[in-house]
Design brief:
By secondary structure, this protein is α/β, with parallel strands linked by helices. Helices cover 40% and strands 14% of the residues. The chain folds into two domains: 135 residues, Aspartate Aminotransferase, domain 1 (Alpha-Beta Complex); 227 residues, 3-Layer(aba) Sandwich (Aspartate Aminotransferase, domain 2), CATH 3.40.640. The protein has a seven-stranded mixed β-sheet, with helices on both faces. It has a three-stranded antiparallel β-sheet with strand order 9-12-11. A two-stranded parallel ribbon has the order 1-10. Helix 7 links the parallel strand 5 and strand 6. Bound molecules: glutamine. Glutamine (GLN) binds next to helix 1.
Amino acid sequence: MPATASRLSHFTESVIRAMTRLSNQHGAINLSQGFPDFDPPEPVLAALERATRGPFHQYAVTWGAPRFRQALAAKITRCSGVPVDPDLNLVVTCGSTEAMMCAMMTCCNPGDKVIIFSPFYENYGADAILSGADPIYVPLRPPQFSFDPDELARAFASGAKAIIVCNPSNPTGKVFTRAELQFILYLAEKHDAFVITDEPYEHIVYAPHEHVYMNSLPGAADRVIVCNSLSKTYSITGWRLGYVHAAPHIIAQARKVHDFLTVGAAAPLQEAAIAGLELPASYYAGLQATYTAKRDVFLTHLRRTGLPFTEPQGAYYVLLDISSLGFPTDTEAAEWFIREIGVAGVPGSSFFREPEHRFIRFHFAKKEETLHAAGERLALLANHPRRA
Ligand code: GLN
């Protein structure tokens, strides 16, 4: 029998998506894979209905339907202040997942080194392997999940071609400060490296923290490649709409990668999502208030468990420290949570380079009633016989 490619033996299928399947099998409340159980904004749903009857059933322009790119460029400039030419600075992709793969394949030759902070969003390890890059991991240390500047400087000095910065960060909830981003950019300039950002939670940030757009910093234009998505902002994770935003000479190359990977993102969905991109500033303020309330509900329930957990500054994930429950591995713990408690999370080890089995990641992008139901179940941990 012919052997399949050896690079595929270096990573597993997504643990996040596997936990969703396990949760569904057991009928648990699914707080593992981060997606909402509530509807997108009404104008987006109405636009989707209209789009089904329009002339949008064939391929859109490979790098994005013109009207979608115009609306996207205007929205990006309104939010970040960065000028965007819709014809030169954007490639529309199938989610930020494709955007990240596209960015990595655009930047890296086989054997190039890419800095990844650990913990990291699960996809980055696989992205590095599939694009032929060698990851260098730099730890983000709890409780603030800050990095050691000297350690990061050494990682750049070892010949890094690029760094991936997920901001706000999945799974830690860290929101990078302006000073941290400036320092990363300073090192990237010094060592002539790319900075690939992943910013799908740009609008899910909790006061007093604020999202700073890396590409709005002076000196960013030629080396920052933004990967982003509409999934979280408009509650449309299943639409798979994302984009790469970078300087024209980078985008000219990224378009080629995207073209041969997927040809393009779904045309009717691009048309419908324009209604989201045109929503007024009050929509984003409302989204932030909604998620702040969800965070407060969920953290209040988690406090009742008596277990320590991370308090997110942004995004919608919490790392619950389950070390006191005495499980040999977090995978066994996560399976037990699904079967015995009826709430699904993701074993934290899938986000760490280090052998870290202390955490289960839960997310709170759910209706408040779902969060209350999950919270009641999790509160059973307070008096559970597993607690010594
Ligand atoms: N970003 C989400 C998470 O971390 C969804 C991941 C996915 O399945 N694409 O859970």
